[in-house]
Specification:
277 residues; alpha/beta; globular
């Protein structure tokens, strides 16, 4: 069993560490009130790594992607979520967007993106309003999330407060297939070097490539999974792919090592996807 970790001592005093500590508080607070949530985005490889090895070299994210699945979008739950986040945890609706919440913790900005794993309606809007019995919340639609609930897992973070009090936080995240489903889909709408980096880190540090390949093979007939394989083949087919260059840039790989590393990335993703379709 992994040891309990002291996050304050393990990670340097950065905004990322502050957001991580707040993420754990949010998950425990909502769980204690029986609110189902899913943590997505770039925190997934970091948290999965932290849960299995009690450490992580993944670069922390600076916002929290919190998905409310269908059960947590029902009226009584909506009221409860709003109360917990805006009153108990002191978040405020961001001026940037109505589906974002934010607050300052020890001078650091903590931003929370509220998301729904639902498809876009006939109006094509990317933000929906869900109603409680007395209140409402705005949620952004999660790209690629319509089939997410078929591809989830629960991880456990063992940690302690600075006082030494042990804490156990259980977090629901996308599994390997779900994570790649979301990350490959978001690359259709933005070019951000952290997206391919997150996929590469997950496939090299969080699970063995062979295990990921087997999971994709086992679920190939499930909705959306074939598209994941095709997108991975497209993104990581050539060493000079924009997405592979993004990984190298994010890791600050320089000189001749860039060419060698690019070739390794191509081989790794080819090993995951080749022959599946």
């Amino acid at each position: 069993m992994n040891r309990f970790i002291n996050i304050t001592k393990l990670f340097p005093p950065t905004r990322g560490r502050t957001v991580l500590q707040e993420l754990l508080i949010i998950v425990r607070t909502l769980s204690e009130r029986s609110i189902e949530i899913i943590i997505c985005g770039g925190w997934v490889p970091f948290l999965k790594d932290l849960a299995s090895r009690s450490t992580s070299e993944h670069s922390m994210s600076l916002d929290i992607d919190l998905v409310l699945p269908e059960h947590s979008r029902r009226p009584p739950a909506v009221d409860k979520v709003r109360e917990l986040l805006l009153e108990d945890l002191s978040f405020e609706v961001s001026r940037e967007a109505s589906c974002k919440l934010e607050k300052r913790v020890s001078g650091e900005l903590v931003q929370l993106d509220l998301l729904a794993d639902a498809g876009r309606g006939a109006d094509g809007n990317a933000v929906i309003k869900v109603y409680g019995e007395a209140t409402s919340l705005d949620l952004a639609l999660l790209d690629g999330g319509v089939n997410l609930t078929q591809h989830l897992e629960e991880i456990t973070i063992l940690h302690q407060e600075d006082s030494g009090k042990p804490l156990t936080t259980k977090i629901t995240i996308p599994d390997a297939v779900g994570f790649l489903m979301l990350k490959t889909e978001v690359t259709r709408f933005r070019k951000n070097e952290k997206d391919p980096y997150d996929m590469y880190y997950y496939c090299t540090r969080c699970e063995e490539p062979a295990a990921i390949r087997q999971k994709l093979r086992d679920r190939l007939s499930a909705p959306g999974v074939e598209n994941v394989v095709r997108r991975l083949q497209y993104l990581f087919r050539y060493p000079d792919s924009l997405w592979i260059l993004g990984i190298l840039d994010h890791q600050k790989v320089q000189g001749l090592e860039r060419e060698r590393q690019a070739a390794r990335i191509v081989r790794m993703f080819d090993g995951i996807t080749n022959g599946l379709l």
